[in-house]
C-alpha cells in the first residue's frame, strides 16, 4: 500500500512511519517541522509542507496515488489551547479541513485521525467507552471533536471513510531505542519524571494531592506508543476492508496515579527522583481510564506492552540516550 503520513516527524507519527515501513508499505511523510524532528524520519521520503497550503497539497496528491492518509499533525498542549485558542482552531481544525478538501479533490477516501480522550471532558463514568458524552472542556479537545463531527458529515456527503482514534495517555518509546518522546517544552508526566531521574531536571512537580483518588493524585491510562501505532495499522486495514467510519478508544483500561508512575520510575531506574508539590493544574480531570473493548472486538487490537513497567523501561532507555544532546 501507499500511504501519506502527515506529521510523521512527531512523537507518535515517527513510530507509525517506522512500523509501516517495516511492514513493507510505501509512504510519504508530510511535515512542516513546527514540532517534529528530521532525525525521527530515519530516511523516509519527506515532503516539507504545511497542510494549510492547499496548492502544495494538490501537488502532493497529484504526484502519488495514496490509498489512505494518517493525520498526526496537531498541537497538543491543553493549557496553551486555553490561552491561544486561535492557534488550535487554525491548525487542528482549519488546516485539517484544507487537508480533507485536498483529499476529496484527489479522490483519496480513507483517513485515520489522531483524536483524544479530551473529547469526553470531565468523565461522568469510568471506564470511558466511545458512547460516553462528548463535552470537551478546552479548545484542544473541542478542536478534535469538531474534526470528528466534520468527518461524519464528509462521509455522508463525499463518501470519505475515517477512523478516529481517541488516545488516552500516549507514553513509552520504540522498543529498539531508535525513537522516543521529544517535546519542546516537555509537559507530559513520564518524560518529566525521567528527566528528574537522569538529572536533567531538579525534580518532578505533582499537580495536586487532594483529588478523590486512593492516594490523592490523578489517575491516567498510559498506553505504549508502539501499541498505539499498531492500532492505526489495524484501523487502516479495517477501512481497506470497506469498514464503516467509526471511532475507537485507545487505552489499556487500567489507571495509574501520578504517584504510582513516580514509584514505578524509581523502581525501573533505580534513581532517587525528587518530588515537589503544587496545586492542581487547571482542567485536569481526576480519573481518565479507557474502555478499549471496541478496538479489541472490531480491530482485534491487543496491547503488546500493557505493563506500566515496560512503558517506563522503554522511555527510560530513550531518556538515557537523549540523542539530541
Ligand atoms: N502531571 C504532574 N506533573 C507534571 C505533569 C503532569 O503531576 O509535571 C500530572 C497531570 O496533572 C496529570 C497527569 O500527570 O494528572 C498526566 O499529565 P500529562 O500532561 O502527561 O497528560 P494529560 O493527561 O494532561 O494529557 C494527555 C495528553 C493530552 C490530552 C489529555 C486528555 O497529553 O494531549 O491526555 O486525553 F488532551
Which keywords apply here?
2 domains; alpha/beta; Rossmann fold; 7-stranded parallel sheet; 10 helices; UDP-galactose 4-epimerase, domain 1; binds uridine-5'-diphosphate-4-deoxy-4-fluoro-alpha-D-galactose; 325 residues; 3-stranded mixed sheet
Distance from N terminus to C terminus (CA atoms, Å) equals 36 Å
- Ligand catalogue: uridine-5'-diphosphate-4-deoxy-4-fluoro-alpha-D-galactose
Counted beta strands: 14
Which strand-content bin applies to the residues? 15-25%
Shape: globular
Low-confidence spans: none
Can you characterise this structure?
- There is one protein chain.
- This protein is an alpha/beta fold and 325 residues long.
- The chain folds into two domains: 2-170 and 224-250, 3-Layer(aba) Sandwich (Rossmann fold); 189-220 and 253-321, Alpha-Beta Complex (UDP-galactose 4-epimerase, domain 1).
- It has helices at residues 11-22, 54-63, 78-83, 85-105, 139-158, 189-198, 225-240, 258-269, 293-299, 308-321; strands spanning 2-6, 26-31, 46-48, 68-71, 110-116, 161-167, 169-171, 204-207, 219-220, 222-224, 246-250, 256-257, 275-278, 287-288.
- It has a seven-stranded parallel β-sheet, with helices on both faces. The chain has a three-stranded mixed β-sheet with strand order 12-9-14.
- Helix 6 crosses helix 10 (308-321).
- The chain is globular and about 55 Å long.
- The model has no long low-confidence stretch (mean pLDDT 97).
- The chain binds uridine-5'-diphosphate-4-deoxy-4-fluoro-alpha-D-galactose.
Amino acid at each position: 500500500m501507499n500511504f501519506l503520513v502527515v506529521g510523521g516527524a512527531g512523537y507518535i507519527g515517527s513510530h507509525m512511519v517506522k512500523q509501516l515501513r517495516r511492514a513493507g508499505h510505501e509512504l510519504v511523510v508530510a511535515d512542516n517541522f513546527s514540532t517534529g524532528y528530521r532525525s525521527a524520519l530515519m530516511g523516509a521520503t519527506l515532503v516539507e509542507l504545511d497542510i494549510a497550503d492547499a496548492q502544495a497539497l494538490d501537488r502532493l496528491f497529484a504526484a502519488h496515488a495514496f490509498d489512505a492518509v494518517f493525520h498526526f499533525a496537531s498541537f497538543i498542549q491543553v493549557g496553551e489551547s486555553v490561552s491561544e485558542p486561535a492557534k488550535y482552531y487554525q491548525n487542528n481544525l482549519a488546516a485539517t479541513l484544507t487537508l480533507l478538501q485536498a483529499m476529496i479533490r484527489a479522490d483519496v477516501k480513507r483517513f485515520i485521525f489522531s483524536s483524544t480522550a479530551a473529547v469526553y471532558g470531565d468523565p461522568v463514568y469510568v471506564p470511558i467507552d466511545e458512547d460516553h458524552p462528548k463535552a470537551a472542556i478546552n479548545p484542544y479537545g473541542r478542536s478534535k471533536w469538531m474534526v470528528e463531527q466534520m468527518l461524519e458529515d464528509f462521509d455522508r456527503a463525499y463518501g470519505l471513510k475515517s477512523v478516529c482514534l481517541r488516545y488516552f495517555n500516549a507514553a513509552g518509546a520504540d522498543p529498539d531505542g531508535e525513537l522516543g518522546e521529544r517535546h519542546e517544552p516537555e509537559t507530559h508526566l513520564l518524560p518529566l519524571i525521567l528527566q528528574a531521574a537522569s538529572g536533567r531536571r531538579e525534580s518532578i512537580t505533582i499537580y495536586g494531592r487532594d483529588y478523590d483518588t486512593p492516594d490523592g493524585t490523578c489517575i491516567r491510562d498510559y498506553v505504549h506508543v508502539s501499541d498505539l501505532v499498531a492500532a492505526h495499522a489495524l484501523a487502516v486495514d479495517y477501512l481497506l476492508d470497506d469498514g464503516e467510519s467509526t471511532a475507537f478508544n485507545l487505552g489499556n483500561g487500567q489507571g495509574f496515579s501520578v504517584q504510582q508512575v513516580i514509584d514505578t520510575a524509581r523502581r525501573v531506574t533505580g534513581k532517587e527522583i525528587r518530588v515537589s508539590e503544587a496545586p492542581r493544574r487547571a482542567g485536569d480531570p481526576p480519573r481518565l481510564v479507557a474502555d478499549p473493548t471496541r478496538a479489541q472486538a472490531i480491530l482485534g487490537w491487543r496491547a503488546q506492552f500493557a505493563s506500566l513497567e515496560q512503558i517506563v523501561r522503554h522511555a527510560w532507555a530513550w531518556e538515557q540516550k537523549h540523542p539530541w544532546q
